[in-house]
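A note from the maintainers: we've had questions about how concatenated examples are separated. There is no special marker in the raw files; a new sequence line simply starts the next protein. For clarity in this README we add a label.
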Amino acid sequence: MSLLLQNLILSSLGDIALVIGEQYEKYLEPVLRVLKQAMQLSVTNAASQDDEFVDYNHELRLGIIDAYSGIMQGLGSAKCEQYLKPEVAGLVEFASSIGTDADPDLDVCKSAVDMLGDICSVMTEWLKLVNTCKQSSHIQEDCEWAVQQIEGALRS
């Protein structure tokens, strides 16, 4: 199977989740296993100097990210928290690894940041934490500091 076709298949896994929504739950276990293997391949070989593999890895990463984003949006918050909560640390690590590339691909970087936004939008526990902090006057300063750090990182 061609490498490009493999990446398109990964991306289509997210498209299917978007279309069938919560019914995607029954396919989640094998899909997550495939996506983890793809992430492992990407991270393990990220330092490759082979131009063909570098291009392939960019496409692989886009396919992985598209799949996860589609799954998160398709499943909705409750199912994401139920099934994807254990995946979040690996997804954040995967996104972080993209930023360590010697010459990061901008499309991949944008997609990784979008995926992090998707994670934040479906993990209601995170939203509850942020809202609780925003409502507490003695924590507000810490929240503002955290927001300034994020904004500063986005500007640099």
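[label: protein 2]
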Amino acid sequence: MHSACDEQDDLSSPAKSSFTHELDFRNEAANAEAFAKSVAYLGYVTVPAPLHEYIPGPRVLVSEWVHGKHMNSLPADQAFNMAAMAVEAVTAGLLLTGIVHADPHEGNIMLDDSGRLVFLDFGLMSSVDPDMCASFAPCHLAAETNSHGGGFALARACGSTTHSTGAGRRESTRLRCLSSACRQARSIVVLFAC
């Protein structure tokens, strides 16, 4: 019989391996740098830079200090803009870069004193294969515009994009979807603000 205790002692356990990987803060520092590089083109997203010279091993992470505020401390108009920027940045990861912050809750995002969006805590990250990014774009666009007239057509659009589109059209679709996601984010934020 296999018990949970047996699994804890099994060094090959996927859960234990994932947990051990997440607790090695050197990995979190590498994740922060990769995420920062992936969203740099947006121009308004930043990440506290890891200070490698002060990181002695896997149990300590030292980064630059960021002055700013979390969403619950901002006036409504700034909170609205912050939420729209956050949705755009997360959507960019899914549709364009393939590097996704997997824990973007209010405590892990803030607005710095210069108005830039700051992502924190890079222990949980995910990557999306480029073909999957290409598949997400038409799905997002179809969901927002309801242009495919139902779930079956939406599923067909999501599954067939990598086979039926060229690279240029795929990139154009992803960029249109990113723009669409930003408009949708503003609608979502208005609903939460009411």
